[in-house]
Amino acid sequence: MDYFPIFLRLANEPVLVVGGGEVAARKIDLLLRTQAQVTVVAPELIESLAEKAHAGVISYVSGEFQPELLDGKRLAIAATDKPSVNAWVAHQAERRNIPVNVVDDRELSRFIMPAIVDRSPVVVAVGSSGDAPVLTRRLREKLESFLPQRLGDLAKLAGKLRPTVKARLEHAATRRRFWENFFDGAIAGDVLSGRQDAAGQNILERIGNSLTRFAKQSKFAGEVALVGAGPGDPGLLTLRALRALQNADVVLYDRLVSDEVLDLARRDAERIYVGKASGNHHVSQEDTNALLVKLAKAGKRVCRLKGGDPFIFGRGGEELEALAAAGIRFEVVPGVTAAAGCAAYAGIPLTHRDHAQALTFVTGHCKGESDNVDWAALSRPGHTVVFYMGLSQLETIVARLREHGAPGTRAAALIEHGTRPTQRVVTATLEDLVHKAAEANVASPALLIVGEVTRLHDTLHWFNARAVEAASTDDEGRLSA
Ligand SMILES: C[S@@+](CC[C@H](N)C(=O)[O-])C[C@H]1O[C@@H](n2cnc3c(N)ncnc32)[C@H](O)[C@@H]1O
User: Fold this and answer.
1) What's the CA-to-centroid distance between 231 and ligand 1, angstroms?
2) At what angle do helices 186-193 and 201-216 cross, to 10 degrees?
3) Which of 24, 26, 37, 57 is most buried by its number of CB atoms within 10 A?
4) Does residue 394 sit in helix, strand or coil?
């Protein structure tokens, strides 16, 4: 971050604007919204500024900029059409440690002004450190259309209520729940839609009733959201997952959860890693279950984030059983499982009228002879088989499939780091899969897809130019069975 984002209180504070034209006028309009005491210095003023000066809204110093005019000022803006004057103003302001903005000159500016959406007291500022002003304007337009016009009314109402809420609800956690309930609830909806005047008697009564309900609840029951974080790309998170993440006091996550997804949690939420650490210390499933119960019993809202979908090879069921046994409330938010995410991002349709009429997800943690996997069924043609956690068992998987009738020409693909910027796809046949995986040094997490649909990757791949095209060596035509 090149610029520190702050909101500066300027009410009754002296600010110098150098320049009397249109650009200066726009900056002055903005400054006046903050009740700043604006002095403008320029040989002459455009009409709108002259009127303001005449009405005493701003002070006017007629003439050229003099460095002494900066003395005692909180902020300075150089907005003349003469670069040498602007540079002189910037230099003098810097000497006095007064933050200065030079219009359209980021090098000379100590601060720059963001694009804003003003729903005072709510102000949204968007900046690109000066790199992409058109982009910031586009973002502002989007925010303008998205943020309710009466957002300011709601914020003002909240501001008025704050002392009462603080006095009536002793605990910070209770107050936070009250506010979340307030902003998500019917009262806020009525204010935002204009159905109820924010100062209306009915609204105040309803708020009073809500406060009474919250004040009676001395302790809040904790709860757990078991959330599927998807295979990595944060864009694959569901809206419900995002909400659970942002409501959580504590987030428990493991190795498969990407940093980008974790970044979406509330900034002050506690983050606890419960996966395998690099030192190979492993938090056991029992410890994780116990921690979930403990946190919920302490009244926390816990988001248990799991890679992919929590109910697909995720041991989510075991965690919920522990919660159910302890009488803790929970919800489950499904996620995009690795098979769906990786296949989509690799351009491999898992079923296809011509190539696969059945689809099976299997754990690759199979032991060969002694496992319960129906290898004969998985080896049949017209079937796509997705192996999770299959990388370390690649040789066994290939051997079992071939023993049960799958031909060496059966196509397969390994997808490493699926949906992430580092995604790689290695395509092969059962005959050369182990060799190609070793050659490409495929690493975990990786998903194995076996079936003729994987041949479609060649024509349908769309994501990530870095994909490794380790095409199969068979020359019978990629799409023939
Ligand atoms: C313990 S399972 C968890 C599966 C997860 N619950 C899901 O629904 O995707 C872990 C396996 O999922 C697969 N996997 C998860 N994320 C992946 C990704 N981004 N790319 C490739 N494979 C992934 C790998 O096979 C990995 O060994």
Assistant:
1) 7
2) 160
3) 24
4) helix
Phi, psi of 39, rounded to the nearest 5 degrees: -110, 130
Just give the CATH number of 14-113.
3.40.50.720
Instruction: Report the alpha-carbon distance of residue 145 to residue 143 in Å, rounded.
Output: 5
State the distance from the centre of ligand 1 to the C-alpha of 293, rounded, in angstroms: 25
Specify whether the CB–CB gap between 301 and 247 falls below 8 A: yes
Ligand 1 touching residue 308 (CB < 6 A): yes
467, pLDDT greater than 60: no
The bridge status of strand 37-42 relative to strand 59-62 is parallel
Q: Give whole-number Cα distances, 234 to 126, 239, 388, 424, in Å.
A: 21, 11, 21, 18
Cα maximum dimension of the chain: 95
Could you name the CATH architecture of 151-216? Answer: Orthogonal Bundle (1.10)
How many angstroms separate the CA atoms of 409 and 264, rounded? Answer: 44
CA dihedral (109, 111, 112, 115) in degrees, to 10, reads -170
* Angle subtended by helix axes 172-184 and 186-193, to nearest 10: 50
142 catalytic? Reply is no
Domain assignments of the chain as residue spans, ordered by start: 14-113, 151-216, 223-333, 341-460
CA distance 64 to 80: 11
Among the listed residues 380, 394, 378, the one whose alpha carbon sits nearest the alpha carbon of residue 444: 394
Residue 9 CA to residue 17 CA, distance in Å, equals 17
- Where residue 280 falls among pLDDT bands split at 50, 70, 90? low
Beta-bridge mates of residue 228: 306
Ligand 1 atom closest to Cα of residue 444? 27
What average pLDDT is seen over the chain? 90
The closest of 165, 156, 239 to 192, measured between CA atoms, is 156
pLDDT in the model for residue 370: 67
pLDDT, tens digit (0-9, with 9 covering 90-100), for 182-194: 988 888 888 888 8
Asked if residue 345 has its Cβ within 6 Å of ligand 1, the reply is no
CA angle 163, 164, 166 (to 5 degrees): 65
**223-333 to CATH, choices 3.30.565.10, 3.10.50.40, 3.40.1010.10, 2.40.110.10:** 3.40.1010.10
- Both structure tokens of 98: 């007064």
Q: Please state the φ and ψ torsions of residue 119, each to the nearest 5 degrees.
A: -120, 55
Q: Which atom of ligand 1 is nearest to the CA of 310?
A: 6
Active site residue 254: yes
- Element holding 415 (H helix, E strand): strand 411-416
Q: Which tokens belong to 35?
A: 């009740």
Domain 341-460 belongs in CATH node 3.30.950.10: yes
